[in-house]
Design goal:
The complex is a heterotrimer of chains A (about 230), B (about 270) and C (about 210).
Chain A: H1 4-22, H2 28-63, H3 69-89, H4 102-108, H5 112-142, H6 149-164, H7 167-173, H8 185-220
Helix pairs in contact in A: 1-2, 2-3, 6-8
Chain B: H1 5-25, H2 36-47, E1 53-59, H3 65-81, E2 85-90, H4 94-107, E3 119-124, H5 129-137, H6 139-142, E4 170-174, H7 180-188, E5 195-199, H8 204-207, E6 221-222, H9 223-234, H10 239-273
Chain C: H1 2-21, H2 29-65, H3 74-84, H4 96-126, H5 136-155, H6 167-207
Helix pairs in contact in C: 1-2, 1-6, 3-4, 5-6
Classes of the chains: A mainly alpha (about 230), B alpha/beta (about 270), C mainly alpha (about 210).
Chain lengths: ~230, ~270, ~210
C-alpha cells in the first residue's frame, strides 16, 4: 500500500492531465484546474521542507561543534534575522504582522527586510556568481587548446562570437564594402547564431524533448519509480 | 621563467580585474550594432496598441541582475512610453524585489504613472510551468491579491483581465528555470499569447531555435549586449550601454589569454617531440 | 540616521563583496562567513516569500474568508503537511502521496508541452523551403539549418551503432555541435564578464565614488 497507492495516484493524475488536453471539457478541465492550484500549495510546503532541513542540518553542526560550526552559526543567525524582519514588517509593498514598520523604515531608508536584501543578499549573490568571470578567464588560458579539426571549429566559432558581440568587431571590419557585408564580423556572428548554432541546438532540443516525453510516460505508467525513494 | 599554476592563475585574475576596471573609470564610448533578434522584440512592443495590458515577468535574482536589470528597466520604459499597462509577475521569489527596483528607477522619468492604474506587481508564485498553465485558466485564482494586498478584482487596470489570453504580450526576463522557456511553452504554444523577453548570455544560444518562422519567441535579448541594443533602440543611455566598453576590453583580453595558452601548449608539444 | 544607515549599508555591501572576492586568493574565514550568511539570508528570503506569496493568499486567506466554499483546499493543505512528514524516518512514507501527485501532474504537463514546443514546433521550423530566402547567405543558412538539425538528431540516436555509412551524418552532426558549443562558449564569456562588471561598478561607483 505504501508504494502501490502513490503509483496509482501518479498514474491517475498523469492520465487526467493528458486527457484534459484532448477533451478540454468538464469534468477534466475542472479537475486539472484544481490540480494546478493544489500543485502550487504543495510546492510551497515542499520549499518549506527544504528550509526546515537546512535549519536542522545547521543546528546539528552547531550542536555537535563540527568543523566550521561558527560559520554555520552565522548562517543561522542571519537566517533568523531575515525571517523575523520579514514576518514582522513584511517587504516592499507587503505589510507584515506588525504592519509596514513606517517608523523603522524612516530610520533605515527602507524596511529592515529590504535593507538586508539590498545591502547583504544582493552583493553576496552577485559577487558569488561574478567569481565565474575569473574562472572562465583561467579556463580560456589553460583548457581552450586546439587539438584537432573539431576543436578548431569550436575555437574559430568562439573567437568570431567573442569579437562579434562587442564594439571591437564593429570597428575591425566596419570598413568592408556593402558587397562584402556578410564578412563583417558582427554579421558573421549573427549568421552563426541564427543557422549552424540554431541547427545544433534544435537537434539537442528535439532529442532531449523525446527523452522527456519518454521518461514522463515511464513515470505515468509506473515503470520509473525512483522518486518514491527506498522501501522504508 | 617558469611560473607555477597558482601564480599563473593569480596573474590572470589580476589582469582581468584591471582590464574590466579601467574602461569603467575611463569610458571610451564605443558603439555596437543592433541584432535582428533585439529589433524583433522591440517591434512587438512598438506595434502593440496603447492601453493594452501586458505582462513583464521577473524570473531572475540578483546574481544575474547586471545583465537582466537593464533589460527590465528598458522594457518597462518602452511599455510606459507606449502607454501599455504593465503587470509584473515573478517565477523566482527574488524577482519581486527586482521588479520593485526596476519600477522605482523608471518612475523617476514617468512620475505620472500610478500603481493600480498603469502598473501592478502581482508578486511571486511557485510552480513554474504548472502555474503558468493555471494563469491561462484564471489569473485571479493564481493571484488573489497583489503585493500591496489589494484584491485582484479591485485593481482598476485589471478590470478586463481574467486570464493570459487577455494580455497583449508577455515579456520574460529570465536567468534559468522556470523562465522564458516555460512562458513560451505554455503561454505561446498553448494559449497563443506572443512571448518575448531576454535572458542571460549563457542561455541565449539554447533559445535561438525558438525565434523561428512560427515566432515561438518574438525576438530575444541576449545578455548585456542585448540590453544595450534595446537601450539604443528606445533612445535611453542606460546602465548596459555604459558597461559595453568594459565588456569589449574584457573580451579582447580573453582572446589574448586563449592565444597565449595555445602558444604555450604548442611550445610544450614541440619540446616533448624534440 | 537615514544618512548613516545608507552609508553603513554601502560599507556592508562592500565588505561582503570583498570578502567573496578574497576567495580568489585563497579560501579564508571572511569568505566562509559570507558564504554562510548568504545561505542563511537566501533560505529566509524564500521562506518569507512562500509564506506571504503562497501560503497566506492562496491557502489561509481563502479558508478564512470562506471556509465552506474553499473546504477542498484542506486536501492540498493535508498533502502539504504529509510532505513535511518526510522529516521523520517513521512517517517518511507519507510524503510519497504528495510527491506522487506533483510528479504525476508535472509528467503529464511536461509530456504535452515538450511534445508540442520542442518536438513538433521544432520539426515544423526545420521543414522550410531553403531556396525561399531573399539572398544567397539566407539560402546557405537555411540549408545549414536543415542539414545541421537532421544530422544532429542522427548523432543523438543511440539505439543503433553508428558505423559504416551511418558514421558520415553522425560526424557532420558533431561538427554542428562543435560550432554551437563554440558559440555557447563565446556567450558564456560574455555573461560571466558582465557579472564582474556589475560588481566592479558597485565598488568604483557606489562605494569609492571614483566614477559617476
Amino acid at each position: 500500500m505504501k508504494r502501490s497507492l502513490p503509483l496509482i495516484f501518479a498514474f491517475v493524475v498523469g492520465v487526467i492531465v493528458l486527457l484534459s488536453e484532448f477533451i478540454p471539457h468538464r469534468p477534466f478541465n475542472q479537475i486539472v484546474s484544481t490540480l494546478e492550484q493544489w500543485f502550487m500549495i504543495i510546492s510551497g510546503f515542499a520549499i518549506l521542507l527544504g528550509q526546515i532541513s537546512l535549519i536542522r542540518m545547521n543546528t546539528h553542526k552547531i550542536y555537535h561543534r563540527l568543523p566550521d560550526w561558527q560559520y554555520h552559526l552565522a548562517g543561522l543567525l542571519s537566517f533568523a534575522m531575515m525571517l523575523i524582519f520579514g514576518l514582522l514588517w513584511g517587504m516592499q509593498e507587503t505589510p507584515g504582522l506588525l504592519g509596514s514598520g513606517a517608523g523603522i523604515a524612516a530610520q533605515l531608508g527602507s524596511k529592515p527586510f529590504d535593507y538586508l536584501f539590498t545591502n547583504a543578499y544582493m552583493p553576496l549573490s552577485a559577487t558569488l556568481f561574478s567569481l565565474l568571470a575569473f574562472f572562465i578567464a583561467s579556463a580560456a588560458y589553460r583548457a581552450f587548446i586546439i587539438r584537432g579539426f573539431e576543436s578548431n571549429l569550436l575555437m574559430i566559432t568562439a573567437v568570431i562570437v567573442i569579437i562579434g558581440r562587442t564594439s571591437i568587431g564593429t570597428m575591425l571590419t566596419g570598413w568592408l564594402p556593402e558587397s562584402l557585408e556578410f564578412w563583417h564580423i558582427p554579421n558573421l556572428a549573427d549568421f552563426i547564431m541564427e543557422y549552424p548554432n540554431s541547427a545544433a541546438q534544435r537537434a539537442i532540443l528535439i532529442s532531449a524533448g523525446l527523452g522527456i516525453v519518454g521518461s514522463s510516460l515511464r513515470i505515468i505508467l509506473g515503470i520509473e519509480r525512483s522518486y518514491l525513494g527506498g522501501d522504508k | 621563467m617558469k611560473l607555477s599554476a597558482l601564480a599563473e592563475r593569480r596573474i590572470i585574475y589580476s589582469v582581468l580585474f584591471v582590464a574590466v576596471a579601467l574602461p569603467l573609470i575611463f569610458p571610451i564610448g564605443w558603439t555596437t550594432e543592433v541584432s535582428e533578434y533585439t529589433r524583433m522584440a522591440y517591434q512587438l512592443i512598438e506595434s502593440t496598441p496603447e492601453d493594452k495590458v501586458v505582462i513583464i515577468s521577473f524570473d531572475y535574482d540578483p546574481s544575474t541582475m547586471t545583465e537582466l536589470q537593464p533589460m527590465s528597466e528598458a522594457m518597462i520604459e518602452h511599455a510606459f512610453k507606449k502607454n501599455h499597462k504593465v503587470i509584473a509577475t515573478a517565477l523566482w521569489p527574488m524577482g519581486v524585489q527586482m521588479a520593485e527596483q526596476a519600477f522605482s528607477k523608471v518612475l523617476l522619468d514617468y512620475p505620472e504613472k500610478t500603481r493600480g492604474e498603469d502598473f501592478v506587481n502581482l508578486g511571486y508564485k511557485v510552480g513554474g510551468m504548472v502555474t503558468i498553465q493555471a494563469m491561462g485558466r484564471s489569473l485571479p485564482e493564481v493571484f488573489p491579491k497583489d503585493t500591496q494586498n489589494t484584491p485582484f478584482e479591485e485593481i482598476p487596470m485589471l478590470k478586463n483581465v481574467r486570464r493570459l489570453k487577455d494580455v497583449a504580450y508577455i515579456s520574460s526576463l529570465s536567468s534559468g528555470v522556470p523562465g522564458i522557456k516555460e512562458w513560451m511553452m505554455v503561454a505561446r504554444d498553448n494559449y497563443q499569447v506572443p512571448v518575448t523577453g531576454g535572458c542571460t548570455a549563457v542561455s541565449a544560444p539554447g533559445f535561438f531555435p525558438y525565434v523561428n518562422e512560427q515566432r515561438q519567441l518574438y525576438g530575444l535579448l541576449g545578455g548585456l549586449k542585448g540590453a544595450s541594443e534595446y537601450e539604443s533602440l528606445i533612445g535611453r543611455l542606460g546602465s548596459a550601454t555604459t558597461k559595453m566598453d568594459a565588456q569589449s576590453i574584457a573580451h579582447l583580453l580573453i582572446l589574448i589569454f586563449i592565444a597565449t595558452g595555445n602558444i604555450k601548449a604548442y611550445k610544450a608539444k614541440r619540446r616533448k617531440k624534440s | 540616521m537615514i544618512q548613516f544607515m545608507n552609508v553603513f549599508g554601502i560599507w556592508l555591501a562592500a565588505f561582503f563583496t570583498i570578502s567573496i572576492f578574497s576567495f580568489l586568493y585563497k579560501d579564508n574565514p571572511f569568505y566562509k562567513f559570507s558564504e554562510q550568511v548568504f545561505v542563511g539570508l537566501s533560505a529566509a528570503y524564500w521562506l518569507v516569500y512562500i509564506i506571504y506569496s503562497i501560503m497566506i493568499p492562496n491557502l489561509f486567506a481563502k479558508l478564512i474568508a470562506d471556509f465552506s466554499g474553499n473546504a477542498i483546499l484542506l486536501i492540498p493543505a493535508t498533502l502539504g503537511v504529509m510532505m513535511l512528514m518526510r522529516l521523520h524516518p517513521r512517517t517518511q512514507w507519507l510524503s510519497r502521496f504528495p510527491i506522487a501527485i506533483m510528479i504525476g501532474t508535472t509528467a503529464g504537463i511536461s509530456m504535452l508541452r515538450y511534445m508540442k514546443s520542442d518536438i513538433l514546433e521544432q520539426v515544423t521550423a526545420t521543414m522550410i523551403n531553403p531556396f525561399a530566402a531573399p539572398d544567397t547567405a539566407g539560402v546557405i543558412g537555411n540549408l545549414l539549418l536543415i542539414i545541421g538539425t537532421i544530422t544532429g538528431v542522427f548523432f543523438f540516436y543511440f539505439s543503433k551503432k553508428q558505423d559504416g555509412i551511418f558514421k558520415v551524418p553522425s560526424k557532420i552532426g558533431i561538427y554542428f555541435l562543435m560550432i554551437s558549443f563554440g558559440a555557447t562558449f563565446g556567450y558564456t564569456v560574455m555573461a560571466r564578464i558582465s557579472l564582474l562588471i556589475g560588481r566592479l561598478e558597485f565598488l568604483l561607483k557606489d562605494w569609492l565614488h571614483i566614477i559617476q
